[in-house]
Design a protein that fits this description.
The complex is a heterodimer. Chain A is an alpha/beta fold. Chain A is built from 15 helices and eleven strands. In chain A, the strands form two sheets. Chain A has a nine-stranded mixed beta sheet with strand order 3-2-4-7-1-8-11-10-9, with helices on both faces. The longest helix of chain A has 16 residues. Chain A starts with 10 loop residues before the first strand and ends in a 5-residue tail after the last strand. In chain B, strand 1 and strand 2 form a beta hairpin. The chains are: A alpha/beta, B mainly beta. Chains A and B meet through helix 6, helix 7 and strand 5 of A and strand 4, strand 5 and strand 6 of B.
Chain lengths: 391, 125
């Protein structure tokens, strides 16, 4: 009987790249996805002819994998197009690993692009079109600002239930900005204090605009192969040690406890596959669409007890120089957030594990956790990645 | 031959001024929003019932809408006494006086020309 842990260390991320982070005027989402893909394939020391598996999705095109396949002119034997929000590209890793391990394909390209900041299609018009196509009057009649309103209500509940403060949440944004200031690719730079976050423009209580992720362009891609092949490629392989995906709801009304996400399931599955615990993790990428996210995920993934996340992030340990470096690229809050950010969590984990972080390199890292979030806390996907020292 | 869906049945009743939720008689569980089978259990004996209308405010947010567009407004989540949670608005209360845990009572109203359940503070409930 096969078991999930059979997949531990069997596949590796061998190439990563970003392209057009921030503003990339004059590009389409396809342009950015393809340009990032080209760089990621080159980073791996592979060529397009080696790519026989594809995993990609877009919120604007339901049959997006077909468009990418056509644009690349490839004939893949593995096609993955699951779209469950920003977590999708972390989700893609598990089926990609299974397909690689079973020999369905030999090299999977995971890619994404978005021009939601400078693109010609109006974001508001797009949101309205999507809402009309997936009518859900039980919420929309009340005009909840989505997605921010959903996360705001989760934050409000967390504050009520556990005494988490506005200052605690602001610390997440402040730490992200400190990391961003060390990353030349980060879109937002400059000093940011807890008070600055509190004094920023209110959006949806308890959040101000500085509690909310950026709206940027950007493309990101990575390539996975089997571990045996990875050893012969250009860069130091980053092995997939564990992965887990979970989804419990679509609309925020239907998450029973707004302080407990299904990261509690995806994390458990990922750690079980890896044979590890949070104590083994040296670096974290937790999808920070809003400041409450890392607080919830640190709790749900087991890095601190439920309810303690606010205090956990407020003593400097997640910021540069701290003991648990988190969102070292500057995160969705200060680096880049092109609609669905999940692919960047994997890319930054890989760069840190390779020691390619430059000024933001968080020391010697052998185990990193990349965590994607999608929808309104709806889907949660966790990947545990490591160097050969972690095998 | 197919029967009409629960969503259409629900909408027709709302248009006629009746707000109803569902109950599975075999499991005793109440369900809202309307579904074809009960979530989780799969029970297919859902029947329309009239809710008590009473509930407790679970969470909320005040949306900072510009004054020229109507100013700030609230969005709330309410745990109905029957169990299900729903999104709504709280009316007749200053936004900064909204509190988690408040007891609330439902009222069928209209938002933007559509029938919608809204809540008022419940006194003595």
């Amino acid at each position: 009987m096969p078991k999930p842990s059979d997949l531990r260390g069997k596949t590796a991320v061998v190439g990563v790249a970003t392209y057009g982070s921030g503003e990339a005027p004059g590009n389409t989402e396809m342009d950015l996805a393809i340009k990032a893909s080209k760089l990621a394939i080159a980073d791996a020391g592979l060529t397009l002819a080696d790519i026989d598996g594809i995993a990609t999705c877009s919120t604007s095109n339901a049959m997006w994998p077909l468009s990418v396949i056509e644009h690349l002119g490839i004939k893949p034997s593995f096609i993955e197009g699951t779209c469950i929000g920003g977590s999708s590209f972390v989700e893609h890793m598990l089926p990609a690993a299974m397909a690689l391990e079973y020999g369905i394909c030999n090299a999977v390209l995971v890619c994404y692009g978005s021009v939601q900041r400078t693109g010609e299609m109006d974001r508001k018009a797009m949101a309205q079109a999507r809402a009309a196509m997936a009518a859900y009057d039980y919420e929309t009649v009340y005009s909840p600002p989505m997605p921010v309103g959903a996360y705001a209500m989760a934050a409000q509940r967390h504050m009520h239930q556990y005494g988490t403060t506005r200052e605690n949440l602001a610390e997440v944004a402040v730490a992200a900005r400190k990391w961003a200031n060390l990353n030349p690719e980060a879109f937002m730079q400059g000093d940011l204090s807890v008070q600055d976050v509190l004094d920023a423009r209110p959006v949806s209580t308890p959040f101000t605009v500085r509690d909310c992720c950026l709206v940027t362009d950007g493309g990101g891609a990575f390539v996975m192969t089997r571990a045996d092949r990875a050893k012969d490629l250009k860069k130091k392989p980053v092995y997939m040690l564990g992965a887990g995906s979970a989804a419990w709801h679509s609309k925020i009304t239907n998450l029973p406890d707004l302080t407990v996400t299904c990261a509690s399931q995806s994390g458990k599955e990922a750690f079980a596959m890896a044979g590890m615990t949070p104590a083994d993790v040296q670096h974290l990428m937790l999808y920070d669409a809003f400041t409450i996210n890392p607080v919830l995920f640190l709790e749900d993934l087991g890095f601190c007890p439920k309810g303690e996340g606010g205090r956990f992030v407020s003593d400097g340990k997640i910021a540069p120089g701290g003991s648990l470096p988190l969102n070292t690229n500057g995160g969705g809050l200060s680096c880049v957030h092109p609609g669905m950010y999940g692919v960047y969590t994997v890319i930054e984990s890989v760069q840190q594990l390779r020691g390619e972080g430059g000024a933001r390199q968080a020391g010697q890292i052998d185990v990193s956790l990349a965590h994607g979030n999608g929808g309104v806390l709806s889907s949660q996907c966790t990947a545990i990645l490591g160097t050969d020292a972690a095998l | 031959m197919s029967e009409i869906g629960k969503e259409k049945e629900f909408r027709e009743a709302m248009a006629a001024g009746k707000w109803r939720i569902q109950k599975s008689n075999s499991t005793g569980a109440y369900v809202y929003y309307p579904r074809e089978i009960a979530p989780g259990s799969g029970a297919d004996d859902l029947e329309w019932v009239e809710p008590s209308g009473l509930g407790t405010l679970y969470s909320y947010t005040i949306v900072n809408r510009r004054a020229e567009q109507g100013g700030p407004y609230n969005v709330i989540l309410v745990d109905l006494d029957e169990g299900p949670r729903m999104m709504a608005r709280l009316e007749g209360v200053e936004n900064d006086a909204i509190e988690i845990g408040a007891r609330v009572k439902a009222r069928l109203s209209e938002i933007g020309g559509k029938p919608a359940v809204v809540f008022d503070l419940a006194t003595g409930a």
